[in-house]
Amino acid sequence: MGKTLRIVSWNVNGLRAIWQKDFASSVKTLDADILMLQETKLQEAQRSPEMLTLAGYPHQVWGYSRNKKGYSGVMTYSRVQALSMGTDLGIAEFDDEGRVNQLDFEHFTLFNVYFPNGQMGEERLDYKLRFYETFFRHADAMRQNGRPVIVCGDFNTAHNEVDLKHPKANANTSGFLRIERDWLDRLMSEGWVDTFRYLYPDTIRYSWWSYRSNARKNNAGWRIDLCLVSRNIVERGWLRDAFIENELMGSDHCPVGLVLEIP
Fold first, then answer.
1. Radius of gyration (Cα) for the chain, nearest Å?
2. Catalytic residues, which ones?
3. What's residue 119's pLDDT?
4. CA-to-CA distance for 217 and 220, rounded, in angstroms?
5. Domains parsed from the chain with CATH numbers
């Protein structure tokens, strides 16, 4: 038996807000070895003592939006010490929005990513697609050198019709545009694996629901929070499970994740 790791990703839609909704209890329920959060909407000075001393997580990395307060932001809690941690892709227009954590462990590299939303118009859709291009060029360079790589986060795109409640009604909505879905097609064809869909090809489960029209109560959702892994992780037999914890409340997203067993 090797080392088992439970990795969880959650768009919290405001870390200060979700902290008031018994977030610490949710963290205990999730029991993650590595907990990645997106859309923290925090600046460095706004972190509370409770955030900085969350029980059981001595290792942290934070990324912030540099030019816009109350926007974007990612952070990662870990029980396991990484060899290195970073927050930049090396391109200012992307790094300024605080969208990436990179954690390099002994056996793999892990990315926590909050991909842009394209619904604000053509300019933001273009930004989103260029972010995909830039980020995966960075991740692919590692993967193509044989490095096991994991990318988890809010991708802001549902891949196929099984991944949202109303696909036909949203065919012209950013998040399900053909040009966005083509990006996910490309990633799968080039050797990335959508862990949940790989293990549960026909299971209908969502990770995000609009706050409008009782969407969560009616389960009219989208599966836009994903954990992708390089194919060599699957080939080595490390992938043990993938999950979507859609009973956990506190955000308009729910946690998603995977379980690895590494020799």
1. 17
2. 154
3. 85
4. 8
5. 3-262 (3.60.10.10)
